[in-house]
Amino acid sequence: MAVSRRRQVASDIGLSKQRVVVEAVRLADREGVDGLSMRRLAGELGAGAMSLYHYVANKEELLDAMIDVVFAEIELPPEDTDWQSAMRRRAVSARQVLARHPWAISLMESRTSPGPAHLRHREAVTACLRRAGFSVLMATHANWLLDVYVYGFALQAASLPFDTAGEFADMAEDVFLPQLPPEEFPYLNESAAALVAAGYDPAEEFFFGLDLVLAALEPLRGSA
Amino acid sequence: MAVSRRRQVASDIGLSKQRVVVEAVRLADREGVDGLSMRRLAGELGAGAMSLYHYVANKEELLDAMIDVVFAEIELPPEDTDWQSAMRRRAVSARQVLARHPWAISLMESRTSPGPAHLRHREAVTACLRRAGFSVLMATHANWLLDVYVYGFALQAASLPFDTAGEFADMAEDVFLPQLPPEEFPYLNESAAALVAAGYDPAEEFFFGLDLVLAALEPLRGSA
DNA sequence: ACAGATTCCGTACACCGTACGAGCCCCGCT
DNA sequence: AGCGGGGCTCGTACGGTGTACGGAATCTGT
Q: Using 50, 70 and 90 to split pLDDT, how confident is the model at A180?
């Protein structure tokens, strides 16, 4: 009884902002953002709910920190290739990260302050574009467009109930087509049927738009 | 005391799903989606909280219905012009609608079933593209890309603390530039300064990407 | 006039974020 | 050695949430 044992629970070395935020991300991955409550998170860390507030001012700050963890996971554009390959790699990485943390997309809308990892990322992307010969204005346009594409795609993809060609085919035949009578929705009906027949793979969709956007930006290098 | 007066409060003719959903949209516009609670909404309608559950199975269904109200506000692509003008009009309309109902963007991620107005809208867009000569596959690509652009832009714009050129200049000078020391963020610092000097207007950004995407899609008409 | 359906809502329960303040432990000072 | 203070932990409590349940009031058809 004389032994000093401050932490007796599952947690190993005591809390820290880092540990709190990382566990919050893990919990959100597992249960969705709705399943993330301060009490639940504290339980996961083997602590009392109010203990968390020593490391985070409030839940908003926790969510901000979680978003920045997500940004830190996105690969920075490599410096040793042409700008298109670099932007392509970072877009693909961002897509993977957002697929791993789907809750992040719904949080982006509400968080307005960038966070350090977010800023470092923007700096690297802007550097890549400027070095490739884009003007300040064109680099801004390109930055916007690429971000819009990546986040917009993730947003759209998150609200779809299929990810693979097989899942799409199943959903289309069992759910969509019955809901799309040809009299009311001739074109959607035609599309759904034709896409299933052609073995349409929604996972490929990302690259179509990405490559189209990259190609369309190329001629703008060097222009004002 | 013998007079029959069932509804004595501000509400005029009694409840209905329509009235509940419309008032919910109004409340969300006014107070944000966090300010929308069943009790609050009921109060706004001059009713008890539990009365709402006669018209809506649960809050999720209410949110679904609200999203569909938003979709119904988006202009359908006009049929009497070329496809680019039609798509441009509907994109601009969607942007306006989403700016009017910013809460809608954060809801889209979580709602997975389309809703009638959403379906009607997709049918009209697909019809426009197919009639313009896009194949089923290309129309699907174009549909995705345009939606990704519109929703992605709205998502991005919602998380920025400025809308106009003046607000951007103020924020950049008072907030961004002090946070972007030139040693750590040379390119972002340069960009912020140059954009302010050039009178950069973020409201114009929408059209750059939109027109670029439309132009890049044009040559794909008629291809497989 | 009465029966049944429709509409409304008061109460209650489990959960949420978090303000407040009491306890605990460790450290440095006298 | 004793003590005071500061960092950390957390129990309790308050006002909010979504909604299950059951009762009451009204409307409708006979």
A: very high
